[in-house]
Amino acid sequence: MLKWGVFFTTILSTALFWASDVSAQEEITFELKLSKEKLGINERLRAEFTMNKDGDNFNPPSFEGFKVVMGPSQSIASSWINGKRTYSKTYTYILVPTARGRFTIKQATIEINGETYKTLSKTVEVTAAVDKPNDQKTVDDVADESLHLVAEVSKGNPYLNEAVTVIYKLYVSPNINVTNYRSLDSPKYNDFWSQDIPVTKHTAQNGTYKGKPYRYVVLKRVVLYPQKSGKLDIEPLSLEIFVDVPTNRRDFFGGRIYTQTSKTVSAGRRTLTVKSLPEAGKPANFGGAVGDFKFQVTSSKKRLNASESLQAKVEVSGKGNLKLFQLPEPELPSSLEVYEPEYNENVRTNLSGMEGKVANNYTVVPSFRGKYPIPSISFSYFNPKTSRYVTLNSEEINIEVLEGPAGNNTVSPVASNVNKQLVVPTGKQFHFIKLRPNLTKIGTDYFFGSNTFYILLFAPILLIPIAVFSFKKREAIASDIEGNKIKRANRLAKKYLSTAKKELGNKEAFYVALEKGLHNYLKAKLKIETSEFSKEKITSILDEKLVDSLDIEGFISLLTNCEMARYSPFSDVQMQQDYEKASEVISKLDKQL
């Protein structure tokens, strides 16, 4: 028994020595914290001397230039987290300045584990009296000082049609906690082509605001392309933020008591000075392209027969305003039949702007055999990085038609479409058409009196009752006005809102699909890209179409809900109501449009 007692005593002493050694290795801190570094002569200053180990013989500074009106008050906080103990001890003084000027709060000392530790000196500036001294600060005042919504603009002096990125950041002081927020007013971006870059995850990051440590979250990102020169305003983004603000009261365990309040913050109006594109050196064929591009003209075939088709593609790729300019048109020989081009785009928008490619695909059908050159065409754009115009030329393409009627070789193959090429008959121009078909007899059976003859004879008589029944059924359906309205609304809802219905219960996906469905409906009815328009523009278009004002308001309110749903909590009941309202609004608009 004695041996086991010695063994456990040895283990216990070793563990205590290890714990004391780890504790000794922890860094000891002793620092001065001020409530502010600049204050009015009628304000109060709170000075806190905080240490992470218990000490003795605390010696405060003399507080030259200040009068101590309260303190020292002592508070101790201790906790165990994951088996690790945290400790802090604080001496707090409330000071009142006695004169204006710059004063230094000198070092305080404390003895911890037999060693003396000192705080760093800090300078405080005392100014003239302020209108609202900090000893009268309310919870709302603290929230005002601790929340800042900032719109960071990538470029304040862009060229016309040059990409500008706007990032909205919410800066939050470490002294408060944000619990929720909702959007009050979103910018309209008038005179800009705009594209939102969705923020999929709101992650807090450490940063500074006016030289002080803050946490910030990116709330919104948008890419703008100014559509006219001069001074253009970016409207502010306004949010209502719900926060928990600490008070001077503490609970039974010494923890600070928080109170909740809300504050409206705005990013402020920003103004861009948009430069016009220079006139000097502007090419005659310049179509408004701004960025850095590549240009090419390609053909799917270079050798084919008459009446066969080929695809001629005019393509521009790179970075810039790809959706905002016209592609150049190729000059093709008049003997080549050319159809209206099919427009294709593969463009993605990121924080630096649009990137990808756009193309026109021309279907070309030759009429005569021969050789036809597709001349080189040029494409011009303005590069904002170099502030210069650039002209690119495509390569000449030669098309050889091997078989087909012969044309008049004396006429230039690149003649305009007005002067059509003359056709000279040679007797061989239709030699590729088969003139002697190989026909065979289909048999000697007679049609009259056959089974097929009698089936075809009596089939109409048998179909008469079916036709009468179908007619009466259709007449009954047509007379059911309310039923037809419901069916029509259901068909339209199923057509344009099918994706939204599948996402019921998934807030973000539902409202994205709902907004897309509403825009697609107007796109189908009005033949316009409504997704590029503001709500005011859509309202004016529907008003011009003599749509009832109540129906317009219902449509716009749905679009507003789609935007607000990105920032506000929406219930399943609200989503179901918005879906039913969308079906009703589409039905009413369809009757009027």
Automatic annotation (TrEMBL):
Task: From the Swiss-Prot or TrEMBL record, give the protein name.
Answer: Oxygen tolerance protein BatD
The superkingdom listed in its UniProt entry is Bacteria
Q: Which residues cross the membrane?
A: 453-471
Q: What is the lineage of its organism?
A: Bacteria, Pseudomonadati, Bacteroidota, Flavobacteriia, Flavobacteriales
Q: Where is the signal peptide?
A: 1-24
Pfam families, per the entry: BatD (PF13584)
Going by the UniProt record, its keywords in alphabetical order are: Membrane, Signal, Transmembrane, Transmembrane helix
